[in-house]
Write a structure and sequence with these properties.
Elements lengths: L15 E6 L14 H9 L5 E2 L4 E2 L5 E6 L7 H16 L4 E6 L5 H11 L4 E5 L19 H5 L8 E4 L6 H10 L1 E3 L6 H4 L8 E7 L21 H9 L5 E8 L10 H16 L2
Parallel strand pairs: 1-4, 1-5, 5-10, 6-7, 6-9, 7-8, 9-10
Antiparallel strand pairs: 2-3
Helix pairs in contact: 1-8, 2-3, 7-8
């Protein structure tokens, strides 16, 4: 394993911590997101540390690549507890956490940990899928149920969802009635986030399958009709003046894209998210 790009700080000195969460235990179509953290690290060395979009350089900020959370196989509830405890330990020190999954279920314990510290947290969710089922194949803990579980710990009105183009009819109805629900495109993103006060803590959860699979095939549940990198990245840049306290990026499955383009796209998004956290 190699560390991510120029995340050279020691843990003690870091203000931002990059953490891999190699878990895909509830994936129901194409597994392999457990390999994403290391693939993202390797791909990052094809990038520069400088972001011309934000006019910031990674090396100017104390960011630590703290490796991966060690997770056993099996017992989903125990794994969720381990991820949550790890996140709490890191953010209790005053550091910001940038996590790299893994499947989207890992966002549930990460968001729970942040909600404990920031009860008024607003959650910005980019995804091709609603992830609003109450159960999937009889299970309440699944990458298809993430945000129904999250909404058991915070008001659905604290959840802003963008880009969804796949889910059961009941999920779309529930989203429209309960969350801040903006399916299909990111056209309403700029207007929607105006409702979030800029000093309010914000958490970003980015499922890379929000991107169109015609140029991002490396994901376990590709869904045609997605947004472009340009559209997604421009939306992220609109958050530069907001109080971003944590973020995760999930669902890269690198082995389904032997070109490596999906991995380097994910690495570039990690760089941009890290700089948004500074």
């Amino acid at each position: 394993m190699t560390g991510f790009l120029e995340f050279y700080s020691d843990f003690e000195d870091a203000e931002i911590v990059f953490r891999g969460i190699p878990y895909d235990g509830t994936v129901t179509f194409r597994p392999g997101t457990r390999f994403a953290p290391d693939a993202t690290r390797v791909a990052s060395h094809g990038l520069e540390g400088y972001s011309p979009y934000q006019d910031k350089n990674i090396r100017d900020y104390p960011i630590c690549d703290y490796g991966d959370v060690f997770l056993p196989f099996g017992n989903t509830e125990r794994i969720m507890d381990l991820i949550e405890a790890d996140a709490k330990e890191i953010i209790s020190t005053g550091k910001k956490l940038l996590s790299c999954g893994g499947e989207h279920l890992v966002s549930f314990p990460l968001i729970k940990a942040h909600l404990e510290k920031y009860p008024e947290l607003k959650i910005i969710h980019f995804d091709a899928h609603t992830d609003l089922r109450d159960k999937y194949l009889g299970e309440k803990l699944s990458h298809a149920t993430v945000f129904r579980r999250v909404c058991e710990y915070t008001s659905p009105k604290n959840l802003y969802q963008f880009g969804m183009r796949c889910g059961r009819k009941e999920e779309f109805i529930w989203g429209r009635e309960n969350t801040n629900f903006y399916p299909f495109t990111l056209d309403q993103f700029a207007e929607a986030i105006k409702a979030i006060p800029k000093d309010t803590p914000v958490y970003i959860t980015l499922d890379v399958d929000v991107l169109d699979p015609s140029f991002f095939p490396g994901t376990g549940t590709p869904e045609p009709g997605g947004v472009t990198f340009h559209e997604l990245h421009n939306s992220l840049l609109l958050l530069q003046d907001y109080n971003i306290v944590g973020a995760d990026i999930v669902e890269l499955a690198p082995d389904y894209d032997p070109s490596g383009v999906s991995s380097i796209t994910t690495a570039k998004l990690v760089r941009e998210l890290a700089l948004l956290l500074t």
